[in-house]
Amino acid sequence: MASKRVEQIANHLNFPKGMLNGQVAIITGSGQGIGAETARLFANEGAKVVISDIDAAKSSKVADEINSSGGKALAVPGDMLDDNYLGALVKKTAEFGNGKIHIIVNNAGYTWDGVIHKTTDKQWETIIALHCTAPFKLVRAAAPYFRVKDGEPRNIVNISSTSGIHGNAGQANYALAKAGVTGLTKTIAKEWGPNFGVRANTVAFGFILTRLTAAKEEGAFVTTPDGEKVALGIPQAQKAAREDGNAAFKDIPLGRAGTATEAASAVLAVVSPLFSYVSGQTLSVTGGRNM
Asked: Which positions are annotated as active-site residues?
């Protein structure tokens, strides 16, 4: 097992078929935004990617784009809060991968903000379930495909946020959940690293241009399992105040927000052979903010 990894490192600048050639990846929340960009980058590097998203139309669109561009992708849409879906996702991915799964990127999620004294139980429980419990259950369901000794790389990436590292006003639920996945990541690394060589890392995003940081008035929303619509984004007045005089980015050394492609590129780097000796870590992708 070790010799194969050493060989990969020695040839790290020579990947004619891509850095992820032959690997099979589940990317949750990949119907749009960072998840979709991650899927495209993985496919460009030779991976077979499974597009997991609650929106079936968006899932199919991303998969079709990848397949039409010469990559290999399969759309398996569904709700991450549905235990039956998680089992089906693992099963269909293994079939797509000829009995193997190499990578899981737990990216699916959204924010449902509220100050502490006004946050409802439903807001609290939904966000914790989506960002902590669902990733755990997916990893647990996929355990038979990671606890193997075939000499091939295995990676789990849990997506976090600077809210989980530093906290954020109005996001007690999200901050706790995103802090929680860091502990999950480290536990996976310690349990599955020694005998199976599984690497697990967290990628924590700062201000990335997605629907979560767009103006709330643009109308983006998600629907909870019981049909309630949750508006996404930042209220326009608050967003304008933050951006007045470039105030939104004054504490970011690079002086700007990050793009979805830049965020996805960090995830690609973490699962690539270039990071083969990095495990149990949290990589902050923030443009230098909070250093």
From this structure: 174
